[in-house]
Every structure is written in C-alpha cells, then in structure tokens.
Amino acid sequence: MRNDRLAFGFVNGLGNFIFLTAAVKVLRNWGYDDITLITDLNNPHNKRNYALLQEIYPYAFNRLETSFEEEKYDRLFICAWSRPSLAVPYMEKYNRKVPIVRWNIIGFHEVEMYLRMVGASWKEFDGYMFDVAEGPILQSDYPRIALAQCSGSGQSDKKAWPYFPELSSKLRKMGYSVVLVGYNDELSGCEYDEDFRNRTTISEAGKVLSQCDLLVAPSTGLTVVADAVKTPVLLLEGPMFTARAHPLQTDYRIVRSYISCAPCFQTPVWDSCREPLCMNRITVDQVIKGVLSFKTFKQKKIFKGSDFESVVVKKVNNKRVAYLFCCKDRYRLLDEMLTSFKKSNPYKGTMFILNDGSIDPRVEERILNFKMDGINVIYKKLEYQHMNVKGVRTAMLYNMLSDMVIDSGETFDYVTLIDSDLLFKPGWIQKIAGIYDELKVSKKIGLITGFSFRTKDDSTTYGCDNGKYRLNSHISGQWLMSYQFFMSEFGRFEDGAGSADISKCDDLHKRGFTQIKVSPSVIQHAGAYSSSLRIIPGALVEDFR
Predict the structure, then answer these.
(1) Would the pTM count as exceeding 0.85?
(2) Which part of the chain is CATH 3.90.550.10?
(3) 215 CB contacts (<8 Å, ≥6 apart)?
(4) What per-residue confidence (pLDDT) applies to 23?
C-alpha cells in the first residue's frame, strides 16, 4: 500500500458521485489506501445533497471532511465541474489549474474526466465502487420493470417525462411487474406492483434495481445506480447530452423526440426554455417499443413454485391466445385452413390477420366473413405485396403483426404463428400449449416449434408425459410461446431475417434458452405453395409420440 494522503474535492449529486468512484477505484487498484472526500455546505446545490453524500461516501472514501487543511494531504484532485468553494483559496494560492469539460462536446463522458484527473485512461476503467444492501427483496413476478422520474433533481422541470402513469398501466396490462423507485410524490398516479419511493437508502435502491430486468427513466442519479448494478436502462432523453452520462457497464437504449433545440443542457437555450417539448413529445408507444427492443432480461419467473400447477388447473379453460396469421394469394388453402381452425375448438383469443396486398378478391372476402364465437378478428390489408421480396417477409410483416398485438392493448396467455397451409385437428392448440407448459417447468424452454416438418434427426430427443420431442437451437416454420416471452425476450425480428429467423434463435440459444421441436399429428401441412393440393402426403409430418 502507498502512504500518500490523497483528497478529492467534490460537490454534486448522486450520479456524479458514482461516476467519480471510477477514478477512486483506479487509485485503490494502484495501491493508494488513504483517500479523503472534501466537500462543503456553502454551495446551495450541495446543501441538498450533503445528506446523500454522508450516506454513500464510505463506498469509496476513508472519511468525509467539510473543511480544508492543505497540510493534511499530499495530493488534491479537483475539477471545475464539481469544485467545493472551500478549495478556491488553495487554487488561487498555488495557481492551480483544474480539468474543465464542455458538456456539449459529443463523445466526452464524465467518467473520462475523472480518470484523466488522476492520470488514468479508459484502459484502467474497472467499474464503480458501490455497495448493495441485503434487502429489500422484491416479491412481484418477473419480468420486472422499474420506473424512476428525476429523483429530486433540481433539473426535473426540464428532464421529467409526464406520461409515466399511462406507461405503467400499459406495462401491467402487457404482463410486466412494475416497480417504482425515487423520492417524494414522483410517479404519482402510476399503477404498480411494488412501491419503494421514499422507503430506501441508496444501497437499498441499488438492491431493488439489481432485482429488476429494466429501468425506464430520464437521465438521473438512479440510471447511474442501475449501471452500477448492471441493470439495463431505457433512457428517456430530451435536454441532456447522452454522451456525457450514458451507462458504461450495462445495455441501454435511448428514446428521444428530435426537435431543433435539443439537447440543450448548459446552453442559453436551457435557461430560456419554458416548456420541455423534447420530453413532452416522447410518446408512450415509443417507450413501449423501446422496452420491447431489449433482448436480454436477467431472469424470468412468471409463476412461483407450486403456484404454477394450481394456476394451470384453475385457468385451463380460460386460456387466451394471439393467433398471428399473414396471408396472400392462396384462397383454396386459406378457406380450408379457416374451416379446420373453426372446427378444432381452439382457445379463445384474437386472430391478427395481415393481408399482404392480395390481388385475389376472394381472400379479403373470406377473411371478412369469418365469424367464430370467442375469436375476435383484427384485420389489416397492405396496398402491395411484400412476400415475394427476399428477406422481407419475416422482418417486416411479422413485425407488423407484433405491432398489431401491442396496439390492441390486449393480453394473452400464448402467442402462436399460424399459416394458410396448415390443417388443424380438434385439440391441437390445447395439446401444444400443454406440452409447452409442462416443459418450461423442468427445462428453460422459451418457445416450441409446434409445426416442424424436417425429417433429419439432428437434435436431442427429450421425453415427457406427452411423448418424446426434439430439442433444437433454431426455429423451423411456425411456433408457440408464452405472451410474456414474446413481449420481453423474443422481441422483434431482425431486418432481412428469413422465415426460420435463424439469427434470432441462435441468440436465444446462446443465452441458455431451448427451443423444442414438436410435430404432433394434430396438425397437417397442406403444402407451402401449391393452392391446388388439398394435402401433401404424411411423410412430411413427424409424430414422436
């Protein structure tokens, strides 16, 4: 250990302090053992944050001082951005120059300024110094989304986002658990599963965020806490320069309403702004699409332990399914598919139908005349065909179907993709959903390929009560998954992906999710392209029961 007595002059908020600890951690790694934090109470900004500093300074420093005696220290680190006024005489006496940063220079992060201040670079960056308390433990089901406003910031009048109540309501309808964090009456009017506003220390807030799968918030101290505990962040940005304070250790996305005067922080526009249009024009739908863009969620637990079986038993007859269906000019197959679907006694739900610019008028007529008790139909027709454009069908059309599900505001137990060249037998959806429910208890099953027709046995077989099925790392054709998995993990299709969407499934496989390949005899394949064939011989239909 080195015996040099070091001190940091600092006056600012929570996020800035955590950023500062990156430089302190480097010094600790270099062997410095005696580091003091010096602040004062003369700065009006620091009066508000002094209590906060008293709580969190032990993360990185040996002591906290509110007076400055230069003979106590061998080296002093201060910067113009965060300089206590009590250090000014010292600077004047020694003509001390301090690092100055212009925040409107794109690409300059605050952490880099602190690293440079101690003579380090990005190569030495080793994260932050932040302790997490042992509690509280969250009780809400996964996936969990935390919401935070501006955490008491004096900049909240320009950084706050006004539509959190509507967002919270929609997220809960989509099946997410909503967790509130922050201070005072922030997020008033929000629906929630757990509320930790004004109930936690910073260490405990870090514990709460560490158990969440995502934080949605404007740029604020709690977004840096989320970064410290490596919880993904969806940043709602308006006036702030993201380059100076974005997360460094975790995945993050940005939702921004682009207007001519934003970002404007620490510019004349900031002082003259009376209505933060850059924040007010961010819509709830934009934020929800931002949420769905995340592919990595820490944990998934829709039901807890033995509760799973009881829920399945009690609600087995009340399952609701989103049936995604994209059609084109294959009227005969469409007519036979809808007829077999109606006779198969499917679970109730909604059929989302996308007509890819069919030039056969019988197609739209057949869809509009389709009526069935318990099945709602939401229909959309495009003006021209995309299905014949290579690499477009899955990437664009299936994303359109996903948007139709989101826009409906409905929630479901399952989401399944069907096609016009399938014929269904009674009980097909009940059987496939039952297999899915059984296997996701014992295996990390994300989705099942319920309609796979490959005959090559290139994968592992797995036995369960319903028979033997193949585990696979990719999708072939149609699939079924839980609504939760569809919304939180599966996300949107990659641009240019083919019908098997191999890239997405490889990504899921690398993250530990297993896809199961099931071809039960309750479904038959009527042929992919020939509208004249009623059914292709059963050699293409595998049955592993």
Answers:
(1) no
(2) 307-540
(3) 145, 146, 147, 148, 181, 209, 222, 223, 226, 231, 232, 233, 234
(4) 95
